[in-house]
Amino acid sequence: QFLKQLGIHPNWQFVDVYGMEPELLSMVPRPVCAVLLLFPITEKYEIFRTEEEERIKAKGQDVKSSVYFMKQTINNACGTIGLIHAIANNRDKMNFETNSSLKKFLEDSLSMTPEERAKYLETYEAIRVTHESSAHEGQTEAPSIDEKVDLHFIALVNVGGHLYELDGRKPFPINHGETSDDSFLEDAIEVCKKFMERDPEELRFNAIALSAA
């Protein structure tokens, strides 16, 4: 529904990933071009995030210039930004309607920096309004913009044979190593498992795949 509102033809769909075991992953329609992970921001995670950032700044990493990444400056918009990351890094596979608000946003913002893209989204009513209306549909009450929400969405995508984690709260994409179209879902789920292993007593994890319809 959300994709349709943004002007994307329904040849891709978001489907729930019911579990991380091979037989449950085999139920997910292929190909999969992105995985969104919803997870809790806990103290353990924040400590890890700081250490990860320092480690990458010290050692460096390879990030292809073709990776589309944007910062998050709007509270509670992590789902929208996860969605933009998922679609933007697979835009060659998507069929957009001619008047698609998301297509226009991506075309306008392709040459921008991650910070400029975040600022542009703040002014871009069409996507924000769609996000808010779908948030209202999905829950009895959508979280207000200033309410502190401790659940967060990230996107995992394959760009040029590398698996990237895209999180608007981080300063840059995280390269999780090589992947392929065939192994992408399994590789992305391995990354999701690491999030779960860092917080073994937490149960609030949810993965959604962007799959061929």
* Basic shape: globular
- Helical element count? 8
CATH class: Alpha Beta
Q: Give the tally of β-strands.
A: 6
Mean pLDDT: 89
The radius of gyration is: 16 Å
Could you write a compact summary of the structure shown?
With 213 residues, the protein is of the alpha+beta class.
Notes on the structure:
The two termini are 13 Å apart. The chain has helices spanning 2-5, 22-25, 43-59, 78-88, 101-109, 114-123, 125-138, 184-198, and strands spanning 12-17, 32-40, 151-159, 162-166, 174-178, 206-212. The radius of gyration is 16 Å and the shape is globular. It has a 6-stranded antiparallel beta sheet, with helices on both faces. Residues 135-148 have low confidence and may be disordered. It is α+β, with helices and mostly antiparallel strands and 213 residues long. It has one domain (1-212): Ubiquitin C-terminal Hydrolase UCH-l3 (3-Layer(aba) Sandwich), CATH 3.40.532. β4 and β5 form a beta hairpin. The chain is built from 8 helices and 6 strands.
